[in-house]
Amino acid sequence: MTADSAALLQSHQHHANGTHLTRYASLINRLPRHTAHLLIAPDQEALRHRSSVATGQQYSVEYLSQLLKDKKQLSAFPNVFHHLERLADEEISKVRVALFQFEFTKEEMSLPEPEGDVQITTEKVFVPAKEHPDYNFVGRILGPRGMTAKQLEQETGCKIMVRGRGSMRDKKKEELNRGKPNWEHLSEDLHVLIQCEDTPNRARIKLARAVDEVKKLLVPAVSFLIWLKYLSNI
């Protein structure tokens, strides 16, 4: 690809991003004043500013964080702002792929009416750290500033925790705590602990979705596998 064609492609992509955000902002601008205030205050001006500078914008963790806040505010009005919800989801998906080369399942969970008492249910998903010892699975699961794990929690309604050997950033502290009460997990292999607080019939569905999404994160990125192959051929 020539420099001119690459610049043209980049310009087209930036234009598409700007158009998308402008549509998002224009929908918000058409909301009734009192409703818009409830929905997006105090971040309305920030959103309008983002749409005005979207052309040439580079995605950032801060931008994704703001989008997630916007979506959380939208969720306070379920089945009301259909177009806004769709556009927010599309933008979140686009930014997430750009930042992390990863996309969660878009299909919404269909949850039944609660049956039985609310209880805490857990699942463990072990990390293939032995098969890929050089891959940063903890970073992949948590994401920058914990954004990936936080979004997964928001999408599934489950708590996501990295546990086991190698889960702590401070390795000295990990060694000191291994074997102590309340730190038993440090004697286990690296794993993701998924916790759901809900009735059994709903928890099963939430946990199944969370397990599926976590397993996607446990597949090393293609770029990393190519890099390993390159190193092996040196």
TrEMBL record:
Instruction: Name any one Pfam family assigned in the record.
Output: KH-I_KHDC4-BBP
The UniProt record lists the K Homology domain at 119-215
Determine if Amino-acid biosynthesis is one of this entry's keywords.
no
What processes does the entry annotate via GO biological process terms?
regulation of mRNA splicing, via spliceosome
Matches recorded under InterPro entries: BBP-like, KH_1_KHDC4/BBP-like, KH_dom, KH_dom_type_1_sf, STAR_dimer
The UniProt keyword set, sorted, is: RNA-binding
Output the Gene Ontology terms for molecular function: mRNA binding
Organism for this UniProt entry: Ancylostoma ceylanicum
Provide GO CC annotations from the record. Answer: cytoplasm; nucleus
Would the keyword RNA-binding be found if you checked this record's keyword annotation? yes
Superkingdom of the organism of origin: Eukaryota
Report the protein name in the record: KH domain protein
